[in-house]
Records
---
Amino acid sequence: MDLLIAVTLFVLAVFLGVELITKVPPTLHTPLMSGSNAISGITIVGALVAAGADHSTFTAVLGFAAVTLAMINVVGGFLVTHRMLGMFGPKRRRDTPAQDRAASSAEGAGDR
Amino acid sequence: MDDWTTLGYLASAVLFILGLKRLSRPRTAVRGNQFGATGMLIAIVVTLTDNAILGFEWIIAGLVLGTAVGAVLAVRVQMTAMPELVALFNGFGGGASVLVAAASYLEAADLAADTPRLSAAAGLAALIGAVTFTGSLIAFGKLQESLRWSGFKGMQVVSVAGVAAAVVFGVLMVADAGNPLWIWLMVAVAAVLGVLVVSPIGGADMPVVIALLNSLSGMAAVAAGFVLDNSLLIIAGSLVGASGLILTQIMCVAMNRSLLAVMFSPAPSGAGGPSADDVYAGKVRSTSADDVAMLLEAAERVAIVPGYGLAVAQAQHAVRDLARRLEDRGARVVFGIHPVAGRMPGHMNVLLAEAEIGYEQLVEMDDINPTFEQTDVTIVLGANDVVNPIARTDPSSPIAGMPILDVDKSGVVVVIKRSLSPGFAGIPNPLFAADNSMMLFGDGREAVVSITKALQQI
C-alpha cells in the first residue's frame, strides 16, 4: 500500500471516529470504552500472521504472546461490554404515568 | 494478501463503524457490540485462511489461552472493579501491538526486507504500545489501591530524558535497521516512560488517564498497521484512537483542567484557600438516620448524587432499595451524575445499572442542575469535589470553574460521608457547613440501609 494512501486512510478514519462518537450519552461512556477497547484488539490480525509465519522460533513465540494478549483484549472486552449492556435499559417495576413522562424527557435530553 | 482477504477486511471495518455508531445509543448498544464482535470474528477467520500462515500450533495455543483468560476475567469481574479491568485490557492491547511490531521488524531485518518506513512505523508502535502497556498496568495497580507509589523528585527530568532517548532509538532503528538491539532499547525506554507518566496521576484524575490509555491502545494498533501495511489495523485503530480522545476531552472539560495539567501538574494542592477549621468550625450539623428518614418522608422530589464513595462502600443496591421505598411513598427520585464521578467515564452509571436502576432515572449534570431549586432533599453519597460550591465562587480555588452539581440550591442537603476529610482536590467543602446541609457520618452502605429501615418504621 502506498504510504500516502495509508496516511489518507488514517486521517479519514480519525475524522469518522470523531463524528461517530461525539454524541454519546454519559450513561454509555463505560461500555463504549470497553467496546472500543475490544476493537483495538484488532492487532490480533498481525499477531496471527507473526505466530504462524514460521520464520523463526523467537518470532513465533513473540507472535504467540501477541495472540494471547490480543485475544484476552478481544474476548474479554466484547464479553464484559455485553454483560454491562445487559444491565442497562429502562427498568420500571410499575407504571406510574407521571414518572414515565418525566423519565422520557430526561432520557431524550441525554439521547440526542 | 489476496482480494478475498481485502474484501473480508473491508467487511470488518464496516462492521466496526456500524458497531461504534450503535454503541452510542442506549437502545442499539447491545447490537452495536455484537456488530463489533462479528467484525472481529470475520477479521480473524479471514486472516487464518491467509497464505502467509504456515503453522498453527502457536496460533491455536494463543487463541485458546487468550480466550480462556479473557472470558474468565469478563465473567467474574465485579462492576465496582470495572475501571481496573478496562485499564488492564487497554494494556494488553498495547502490549500485543508492541510484540507484533517487534516480530515483523525482526523478521524483515533477517530477510533484509526492511524499509525505512517499516522501521519508523515499528519504532512508533513499540513506543506507543509499550507506554500503553506499562502505563495501564500502573493505572490498574493504582485503581486497585495496591500501588501507592507516585514517583520521586526530579521525575519529570527523567521523563524528558526518556523521550529524548526514545527519539534517538527511533532514528537508530531506521539508520541501523539490521540491528535488533535498537527496537528492544526502544521498548525498554518506552516501558519506563509509561511508568513515569502515569505514576504521579491518581484519584479523581483517573478517568482522564483511562480514556487516554484507551486512545493510545488504538493508536498503537494504527502504528502496527503501518508496519504490516494493513488497512484494517489502520482503520480500526484510528476509530478507537478517536473515540478515546473524545472521551479524554469530555473528562477534561468536566474537570475544567487541560490534559497537560492533568499529566504534568497532578494532584492540585489545597494550599492558599481557607483552612478546614475556618470553614467548618461550629457550623457543621450532624444528623441521624431517623432524622433523615423524617425529612424524606415529607419530600416529594428527592435527588441522589453518588460519587466514588458509592463504589467503595458497594452501596449501589442499598441505594436502589431506598429509592424504591421513596417511590412507593409517591416521591420522585432521580440520580444526578457528574461526568467525572468515580474512576472512569460512566462509572456511576454502570454501578447503578447493576442495581437495576433504569438509565432514565440517571440525569446528567446539565439537565439536573436547573431542577435542584425544586428538589426537597438531595442526598450526597460519597461525593465531594463535584458538589463543592467554591468552584463557582472562589476564582483562586484549585477547582475554580469546574462544572459542579448545584446541590446546595436544593431545600435540604444530606451528605453521607465517613468524615469531613477533603476530596481529591484537598480543599474544604463549604457545602458541609451550609445552613441547609446536614452530615450523616458513617459508611455509605450502612447509612443508607439504616435510613431505609427508619423509613419503614414511620
---
Amino acid sequence: MISTFIRHELKAFWRSKNTGKSVAIRVVMGILILYLLINVLIVGFLLDKILEGVFPNEDLVKSFCGIILIYFLFDLLMRLQLQELPTLRVQPYLHLPIKRNSLVRYLALSAVLSMFNLWPFILFLPFVFKIVVTDLGILVSLAFVAAIIGLTVFNNYLALYIKRRSNLNGWIFLMAAAVLILITTCDFKWHLYSLRDISYSFFGQLTKTPALAVIPFALGVVMYYFNFLYLKRNLYLEELTAHKVKIYKSSTDIPFLSRFGAVGDLVANEIKLVLRNKRSRSSLIMGLFFMFYGLIFYTNSHYGEGFKVFVGMFMTGIFIINYGQFMFSWQASHFDGLLVGKISFTDFLKAKYLLFTVVSTVAFLLTTPYVYFGWRVLMIHFIMYLWNIGINTTMVLFFANRNFKRIDLSKGASFNWEGVGATQLLLSFPLILAPYLIYGPFAIFKHPDIGLALLAAIAIIFILTRTFWIKQLEADFNTKRYQIAEGFRNK
Amino acid sequence: MIEIKNLKKVYNGVTVVDVPHLEIRKGESVGLVGNNGAGKTTLFRMILDLIRPDSGQVLSNGEVVAGHENWKSYTASYLDEGFLIDYLTPEEYLYFIGGLHQQSRAQVDETLAKLGDFFNDEILNRGKYIRDLSKGNQCKVGVASCLLQNPQLLMLDEPFANIDPSTQFRLKNMLKEVNRNQGVTSIVSSHDLNHITDVCDRILLMEKGIIIKDIATGSSTLNELEDYFGVGQTVASVKIDEEENH
C-alpha cells in the first residue's frame, strides 16, 4: 500500500503546477536549489575554520558541542515558520477500504521527506567526519551521527505536532513561538544561563560515553510515536486541513479611497486581496523587511553613491517589483468576472497606478529616518520614489499584459513557483538596468548630480503623461485579453 | 437583443461551437440544454466576449460584442465561481458590484432586503469570505449580484446545479418574475429538464457544438427532450415513471 502512496505522491509532485511546466523554470529552480545546497555544504566543510575564528581560545570539539543545541533551537523556529504540513493529500483515500494504520503511518513517515531534514546533516556531518573521527574515533562519531539523527527527527515531529495543534487552536502556535523566543532571550540577552554550556554538558559527555546517543534517538522515536497517535485519533478532514481556525470575517471600508470613485473601489479590493491572502501578504511583508536594506549599505562607507540609487529604488519600490511582477495573476481566479463586469480597463489600470502610488508613498515615508545618513540620501530616495511611480509602474504593467499564468492565492509563498514564468525573468532586466543606463554614464564622468537630475526629470515626465501611457497599455491589453483570460482559466 | 452570425470555435481540431445563425429577441427567455461538452459554456463565454471566436461574431443590441464595452452596462451574468471575488465578504462584493452601477449602499441594501428568502440567512452577516461559502451559497451570491445590476440581459450557466430544492424553486420564480414583469431577456443553461421547460419559453438543444433543436416550449416539450436525452432507455422504465407521477 505504502508503495502505491509513494507512486501517487511522486506523480503529484511532477504534475503539480508549482513544479513548473517549462524546462527553463525547472532548470532555474534546480540551479537555485543546488546553489543553496552547495552554500550550506561549504559552510559545513569550513565549520572547523569558522568555529576556530569565532572561539579562538577553545577546543574545536568543545565549541562544536556547544553550538549543536543552539542550532536545533533555531531549526525549530524556522520549521515552525516555513515547514509545510503534509496533510490534505490523504483526503481521496479516507473513504476507501484502506487500513487507518497504514494511512497514518504513511502520513507520519512522509513528513520526513522535507528539505529541512537535510540541513543538519549537510552542516554537521562534514565536521564529524573531518574532526571527530580523527580526534575521538569511529564510535564517538557514530554516536554524534545518531544524536543528530535523533534530534532532527525530534524537531521534525515536534514542529509538525505544534503546527497541527495550532490548526485547531491558533494560540498554541503563539505560545510555542513565545516559549522559544523566551528560551533564546534568556540566554543571549539576560544571560540567565548559557545554552552553549547546556549543549556542551550533554555532547561533552557523549564524547566519553557514546551510549548516551540513545537519549536523543529515543526522544525522536517517542516524538514520532506521539505524532502517530495524535494523527490516528484526529484523522478527520477538518482537523487535517491546513486552514486556520475560522474567525468571524468582518467587512471593512477604506474611507480614504472612496473619494476616487470606481477606481478607489478597485484599489480597496486589491488592498483586501493583498491583506487577506497568504502569498500576497508575504510579498508585502517581504517589502517591509527591505526597509532595512539601507542599514546594510549605508553603514558601510565603501559602497558608493551608485548603490544609493539602487537601494533607494528597492526600498521605495519593492512592492511594485515584488507584487507587480505577478500582475494580473493575483486576480486570475476572478478575472472573468472583471472582464464581464462594468469596469472599463482604463479604470482598472488607473487603480493599479493608484495602488502603486499609495504603497510607494508609504514606503518612502518609512525610509525618511535614513536622513540620519545625510540629506542627500533622502533626496536620492525621493528621486527613486518618483522613478518608481513614474517608470517602474508603467514597465511592470507593460509586462503584466504578457503574463498568462494563474496563481492560486491560498498557497503559501515559500518555494512556491506557481505563476513564475519568463515574464518575471525578462522584467528584472529593464527594472534594474534602466536607472543605471541614465545615471551611470554621468557618475563615471564625475557628474552624478546631472545623472540624478535627469532621472528625476524623466520620472516627472512619465508621471505627467500617465494618461497617455494608460491609453497605450489599454490598447496593448486589448490585443492580449483573450490569451490572458484563457491562461488564467487553466487551473 | 442578441444576434449570432456564423459563430465558430475550434479547439485542437474539434469544433466545439458552430452556430451559423441565431437570434434572440428582447424579452425572450431562452433555455440552453445539452450534454456535457455540447458547447454551452463556450457559447456563453463567446457571447460575453471572454473567448475569441475563430470566425463569426456576436451582436448585442446591434453592436458587435468584441472590442466594445457598452453591452456590459445592461448585461449581468454568472457562469461559475470565477466571476466572484472570493476574498471579499458577500456584502463587500455586492456593494462593489452595486457601486459599479452607481448605486448607493442604501439602494443595494434595499435590493438585498427583497432577496431575504432566497438567501435563507446563509449569505449576509455570516462573517465569511466568499471563498469559505459552499458552492451553492456562492451561486446565490452570483445570482444576487446579477439581479442587483437591473440587467436587460441575464445569463446564467447551470444555476440550479448546486443549490438546494427550496432555493431552486425560489430561483425559478425569480427568473419568471424578472422575465414577465421587467421584460428581462434571459439565457439560462441547465441539466434539469423540468426546471428549464418550466422557466423558459424557448429551448435550444445543443449537441457537439451545433444547435440541433430550437423549440418554443409547449406541453410536449418536456417529453420531446426526455426522448432525446433518454437514449437507449426502454419504454418500460418510462411507464414506471408515469405511475410514480400519479
